[in-house]
Amino acid sequence: MNLRKKAEALPKALRRKIIMDYQETDLHTFLKELFQAMQPDYTFEITHGPQEFGKDLVILKVDNFTKEVIGVVVKRGRINGKTLGDVDDLKSRTEIVLSKGAEKTLREIKSQIEQALAHPTETKSILEDLPVSKVFVVLAGDFSKNARRRLTSEIASEIEVFDIEWLINNFTEFYPQIFFEGQVADFLLKKTNELEESHRRGESGNNLSEYFVAPLIRPLSA
Questions:
Q1: Distance from the CA of 19 to the CA of which of 138, 140, 157, 171 falls in 20 to 30 A?
Q2: Does residue 222 lie in a domain region?
Q3: Three-state SS at 89
Q4: Contact, 172 vs 8, CB < 8 A?
Q5: How many domains does the chain have?
Q6: Residues 196 and 154 grouped into a single domain
């Protein structure tokens, strides 16, 4: 059974709890992995830090038609519309993200994007300083109807909200490792695939796992 099937077998409430129990800094890493799995041709950077100007991650979308910089703001915990601070905090952060670097010319933006793509080691510092055209707000927590209504009516049209249901469904589909301590699962999968591939090169062409025999373990005598 692959990891996606194993994740689907977990109760949805458990998957929700696992995601919500992670610290925001851990979620940044998992979100980067998720985004990369969903759109491998985009560039993603975690920018959270003293100079991130409200955004936790940056997505660089480059194709034959456009060069677009998207800021990602991550919020965990319960978002309650009745508590003014919850929604106002998100509004403030998204406004900062959208206003940062707005004075740059199109030529400057294009030049910096090309520089970021040409020099991967400098990508983070370059993207931190670029103006964004859109903001993704990722909410890893319970989201009241009142809060959703306030956000959708009060935030700018350049902002798109992804809630816990979106996270559960997409992590399950594209990056189920999050439900099994992501990096450990990644390592084990990588090593398993390497062993399978090296064995397949032999004469049999069969998977190594097909030869696995469960060991017989004799109980310890009293």
A1: 157
A2: no
A3: helix
A4: yes
A5: 2
A6: no
